[in-house]
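Dear colleagues,

I hope this message finds you well. In preparation for our joint manuscript, I am sending the PAS domain-containing protein (Pseudooceanicola sediminis) sequence together with its predicted structure, so that both groups work from identical material. I would be grateful if you could confirm receipt.
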Amino acid sequence: MSNFMSATRFNAITEVEGYWEAIRAGRLVPRRSDIDPRGIERALEFAFILERVAPGIARMRVAGSHLSDIMGMEVRGMPLSAFVTPTGRNDMSEVLEQVFDSPARATLDLMSPSAIGKPAIDAKLVLLPMKSDLGDISRALGCFATHGEIGRAPRRFDIVGHTVTPLLGDFMPSTRPGTPDSSTKSETGERRRNQRPFPAIPQKRPEVTPGTSRLRPGPRPYLSVVDTSGDD
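The corresponding structure tokens are as follows:
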């Protein structure tokens, strides 16, 4: 039941993740140029694109209006760490490193405590790596969805939990190159089972006269040797 409620409250996260998987199309990660905003039209206000600028630091290249509402200002060019409290910035830096270096997909559970004019709100953040136009993994498609009234901005969040899943095992083939798969092996075995062995060639044995151990003489040879040394 809790998983169902989470999916209902943060359906923008589900939409962005599904779109990223679709443009990934079995590759390790998609390219930044594969993104078409029309593919996530219903989640655009929660979506953003990050650019890695240094180890553990990534800034907003594109951001939806919901992120500006959270901070109370334009967030393009701001580091992602600006959305979390100082106590959570080291964790955010470590997560970003894994997202770009592994590469990996990351999901963070966030919470902003209540204060004057600021009701408590929950949030979920997803980070999905992408390649830049140069081919390096230095971009990320993200989604930042909240549940509850934003109240007085800016709002900053504590990281209450996160999950990082490496992507390397997602696209590896089931068999190594040059190694026959199970279907090939089964076909080979079937051919071997259906193949008839060559008939044995009978070998001619020498004839033996019954009651004796002497060999019966064979046929007269076509050539014979004549000794003429005693003739003059």
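For the figure legend, we might mention the following. The chain has one domain: 2-169. The CA atoms of residues 21 and 30 lie 8 Å apart.

With kind regards,
E.M.
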